Amino acid sequence: ATLLRRGFTAGRALIPVAHAASRSVRPAAALSLRGMSSVKISAAMVKELRDKTGSPMMDCKRALEDAAGDQAKALEWLRKKGIATAAKKESRRSADGLVCALLDASGKRGSVVEVNSETDFVARNPIFQSFVRDVCALHLSQGNVSIPLADFKALQLEKGPQTTGKISVEDAVKEMVATVGENCQMRTAAGLEVSGAGGVFRYMHTGM
Question: Which domains does the chain show, CATH number per domain?
Answer without folding.
Answer: 1-31 (no CATH), 35-89 (1.10.8.10), 96-193 (3.30.479.20)
